[in-house]
Amino acid sequence: MSGPIPWRLKCVECDTMHRGDEVRYRCDCSGTLDVITTLAAANRKPLLETFDARRSSFIPADVSGVWRFREIVLPLSPDEVVTKGEGNTPLYDASSLQDFTGGANLRLKHEGENPTGSFKDRGMTVGVSMAKKLGCDRVACASTGNTSASMAAYAAQAGMRAFVFIPEGKIAFGKLSQALAYGARTIQIPGDFDAAMELVERVCVDEGIYLLNSVNPFRIEGQKAIALELMQDLRWSAPDWIALPGGNLGNNTAIAKGLLELRDLGLIDHLPRIAVIQAEGANPLYTAWHDGTDVQPLKANTLATAIQIGAPVSWRKSLRGIQSLNGVVEQVSDQEILDAKARVDAAGIGAEPASCATVAGVRKLIQGGVIQPNESVCGILTGHLLKDPDTVVRFHQDQLESIDPGAAANPPVASDGTLEDVRRLLR
Ligand code: F0G
């Protein structure tokens, strides 16, 4: 790489600064790293006008809901980026769920409506663009499915070889099929996501393959764009709360970082609070938060396979962000997740199970008096409904162990194919 680059990497544990143009995921002390970008003193109005103007540009990097904010995300030039036009996701009015959540002012930002069907595309466009800038032609990740689907697609577009490490039998079919289809070498590991994560980090360092899990600090920079785009959607006025699911804890880390940077630049005048929702069977952050301890790894088990993670890599950064935003951590059961999913789906919005932990968590926090019924809440839906069709079909046919679909069950009904019988079914 030639010429000075305007960012450096700072250790979250010991504050040591590292160069921004070396392949490095951790400090020598093993702490994870933050990208620190030297931003020119922002002039609020021109910057916001630029962000708005780019929405109607014909340059792919301008239209991207990540690179449109490149001054804050990562100042690469438009011709350096590998983009699929990610972002620009809808912000649905979900006030029709009021009878379920108890809140009158819920909106849902649907990150599942990204090019590969999950929020991961925002981090991946930056991760793969950095891989290209650093001259890497092989990339790898461990995944519960969405990261691998996204990485496989962006790597293929950039002409890179992709290696994905997945926990055997524990990822939803939609996601596995994407990794295979986009041509990634898909390595199934006996064991869970946490085992795959540990392995891939070692393999990447040993073999000189570029690691694209969220331990890679550039992934976090891209992921920040959820917060940036949400604030642009809301005309730079923050809601009372942002709620999202937590697994490996990269996303809430990124959203907090993005919001704090917007506040520091004077682009928003107040910060929202953040609510991170974990599945009861995969709740190491929830436990640490409530006990005031470090995160203790556990064996994770939840139907929301995307967040079936017991040893989250980014927990320290994540806690720091939650504290800065006066946030909370909540947990919800699989039954609560699937009840919420049935409502999100039936509202015509639709999302994969892990995403719906968001809505289940909002409901629980309103019931518990933490979120007030009239407060404005923006929930993040992280993955598309079609990522996990198996769980949907089994839910509606009452075939999921220990889950009761109740009145939400909508199984297919059989007909003998005669007009008379079909008429009977329409009644
Ligand atoms: N929701 C979905 C749909 C996910 O795929 C993930 C994480 C999360 C929420 C949690 O986000 O890890 O940033 O706290 N999926 C990763 C993967 C682990 O491999 O696809 P997080």
What does this structure look like?
This protein is α/β, with parallel strands linked by helices. It has a domain at 91-117 and 219-408: Rossmann fold. The chain has 17 helices and 13 strands. The strands form 3 sheets. A 6-stranded mixed sheet has the order 4-5-13-10-11-12, sandwiched between helices. The radius of gyration is 21 Å and the shape is globular. It starts with 6 loop residues before the first strand and ends with a helix. The site of ligand F0G has 22 residues, from helix 6, helix 11 and helix 15.
The DSSP helix count reads 17
Distance between the termini: 68 Å
In the CATH hierarchy, the architecture of the domain at 91-117 and 219-408 is 3-Layer(aba) Sandwich
Q: What Rg, in angstroms, do the CA atoms define?
A: 21 Å
CATH class of the domain at 91-117 and 219-408: Alpha Beta
Q: Helical percent range?
A: 25-40%
